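Private note to self, pasted from the team thread so I don't lose it. Backbone tokens:
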């Protein structure tokens, strides 16, 4: 996590906290060709009221609002490129055993 500029452990007014997460791909995801994820964040405001937001996929214009808070909450859909690729390389080396520079 980064962004706690004053190091007080609280999300300040002009702070942007960034969390990084990783998701190991399994064979099912690769076979499916995509994976989906969604993040939820909770916080407590100065009046001690819990607030939250569900992440939205900005590239998805469906903009479902599953918690009816007026903010879009589309699940993020990420395609896994399916490029089957095969390369065959063949190398040859001329071994001039008799030193005449010719292959006979
Ligand atoms: Ca802070
Ligand atoms: Ca949202
Ligand atoms: Ca959206
Ligand atoms: Ca919403």
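Design output:
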């Amino acid at each position: 996590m980064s962004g706690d500029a004053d190091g007080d452990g609280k999300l300040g007014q002009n702070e942007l906290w960034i969390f990084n997460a990783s998701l190991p791909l399994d064979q099912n995801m690769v076979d499916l060709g995509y994976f989906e994820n969604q993040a939820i964040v909770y916080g407590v405001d100065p009046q001690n009221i819990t607030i939250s937001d569900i992440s939205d996929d900005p590239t998805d214009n469906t903009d479902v609002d599953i918690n009816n808070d007026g903010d879009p909450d589309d699940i993020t859909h990420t395609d896994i490129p399916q490029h089957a690729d095969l390369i065959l390389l063949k190398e040859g080396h001329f071994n001039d055993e008799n030193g005449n520079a010719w292959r006979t």
